[in-house]
Write a structure and sequence with these properties.
Elements lengths: L3 H29 L14 H23 L5 H23 L4 H24 L6 H23 L20 E5 L5 E7 L4 E5 L10 H7 L4 E5 L17 H15 L4 E6 L2 H11 L4 E7 L11 H9 L2 H10 L1 H9 L7 H8 L10 H11 L1 H9 L8 E7 L7 H10 L3 E6 L6 H4 L1 H14 L12
Parallel strand pairs: 3-4, 3-5, 5-6, 6-7, 7-8
Antiparallel strand pairs: 1-2, 2-4
Helix pairs in contact: 1-2, 1-4, 1-5, 2-3, 2-4, 2-5, 3-4, 6-17, 7-8, 9-13
Length: 458
């Protein structure tokens, strides 16, 4: 007679084997449900939760099937009914105890996992021998499952970041907050005196990205940098949609509350569209433009930026970002030529660690193509800025912004000076801060109404 220990081990193995397709199908079911990517993802359905639940249910079902096989006449049917009942209990618990909409969002995943367990557990349990390839495959996928859970848990942070979490030695500013009439609570920094430089960040980032430029320019200029609602330390009001158009309206509200005039906008990545939209609506408030690695027109899904939009803004990007904070981490590493110190990189991505705040980093890539109607309006309004003096920084190693975008800016803003950086990428200011500071100083001191500063510096 076979001892109890090998039977238990075989039952565990059969349950683990059945958990692999259960996890895969549940994850796919969560990913393919249509929704606003990133923003409407429920953290309760993240990989670090779904995977252990699927494993526990599959292993429990394997032991249940082992007991049913010796007592029930139709053990497969009995197991299917038991698993179906458990699935119903899970859905009722999600509906009663979870946030609104969780049960509906989780329904496809629960059904897919239940079907996988009911189908694969009996077949795995009844298999008397496994090939070496089968065992190796089981070990491989099991290891990947476990590694994925540990990686997901390692990326999580329960509470939103606070000012106290930011080392003063790294971001040496006074952190301020302002409550806008719309309900948004905006975190910003306001350093120095003189003409106003208003810095507008991109995604996935926040005002921290401008720390070196603020440090180098605040002795001569008033340097203001804010976090948009949903980014950095800022909070969005109830019902806020986080679209670039809405963020631009918040920017306008912020400028009005601070009473800013004759502003020079410094814009990178999404700061370009958000700031340009504001400048088109309120050109009398904007004196000059400084920009780099940005755009203000529609993007085709066939060009590099559009391809990134489809991938990072779709199910794949949402899965990577909401479960592992992957877009924020990857984009930072891929967008800077030099290697950032680990503590600096940690502060960069820290605001995206809380589960409830990381999805926006997956939402904004999708907006590159999803907001084409808004970009069409933005594009149509560009002639209103043709007389503004502009300083254009262009990173030649940034794959998302080819030379055609630079040429379009130069045509749009004829009173421009272009400074090209052959060895910098998307976050060009991280690799060229001293040069950028020097160029901004020269631009601010030489540019005056009616003076043309066109040309290429390098």
């Amino acid at each position: 007679m076979e001892s109890a220990t090998p039977k238990v081990l075989r039952t565990l193995a059969s349950g683990w084997a059945a958990s692999v397709p259960a996890v895969l199908l549940a994850t796919l079911a969560i990913a393919v449900v249509p929704r606003t990517r990133g923003l409407t993802f429920f953290p309760e359905l993240r990989y670090a939760v779904v995977t252990p639940v699927c494993v526990l249910i599959a292993v429990g079902a394997a032991f249940a099937y082992r007991a049913l096989a010796g007592r029930a006449g139709r053990p497969r049917r009995a197991l299917a009914m038991a698993v179906s009942g458990l699935a119903l209990v899970l859905l009722l618990g999600m509906a009663l105890l979870g946030p609104r909409g969780l049960a509906a969002a989780g329904l496809p995943a629960v059904l897919a996992a239940a079907a996988a367990v009911a189908w694969f557990v009996p077949r795995s349990a009844e298999r008397t021998r496994r090939s070496r390839l089968g065992v190796a495959t089981l070990v491989l996928f099991g290891t990947l499952e476990a590694a994925g859970v540990f990686a997901a848990l390692a990326s999580e942070r329960a509470a939103p970041p606070a000012v106290a979490d930011i080392p003063r030695s790294m971001f040496d500013v006074e952190h301020r907050f302002i409550d806008l009439p719309s309900g948004a609570r905006i975190h910003y920094v306001d350093e120095g005196h003189g003409e106003t430089l208003l810095f507008l960040h991109g995604n996935p980032s926040w005002s921290f990205q401008w720390r070196d430029l603020i440090r180098g320019l605040r002795g001569s200029y008033r340097c203001i940098a804010l976090d948009y609602p949903g980014f950095g330390l800022s909070q969005a009001p109830d019902g806020f949609g986080f679209t670039p158009g809405e963020e631009s309206r918040v920017l306008e509200e912020f400028v009005a509350q601070l009473g800013l005039r004759d502003v020079t906008l410094a814009m990178q990545d999404w700061g370009g569209p958000i700031g340009t939209s504001f400048a088109e609506r309120r050109p009398e408030l904007v004196r000059r433009l400084i920009l780099g690695s940005t755009w203000a027109w529609r993007t085709s899904t066939s060009e590099p930026r559009g391809i990134w939009s489809v991938i990072a803004g779709g199910p794949v990007g949402e899965f990577v970002q909401t479960n592992f904070n992957g877009i924020a981490t990857f984009a930072l590493k891929d967008s800077i030529v030099r290697e950032l110190p680990a503590d600096v990189a940690d502060v960069y991505v820290r605001p995206f660690r809380p589960l409830g705040r990381r999805g926006i980093a997956a939402f904004y890539p999708g907006q590159i193509t999803a907001a084409n109607d808004w970009f069409a309006e933005l594009e149509a309004g560009l002639p209103a800025l043709k007389d503004k003096q502009a300083l254009i920084f262009w990173a030649q190693k940034d794959p998302g912004f080819p030379r055609s975008d630079l040429e379009r800016w130069e045509q749009t803003l004829p009173n421009h000076k272009t400074v090209e950086f052959p060895n910098a990428s998307h976050f060009f200011f991280e690799d060229t801060s001293e040069e950028v500071i020097s160029e901004i100083r020269a631009f601010m001191s030489s540019a005056s109404p009616g003076v043309r500063v066109g040309g290429i510096a390098r």
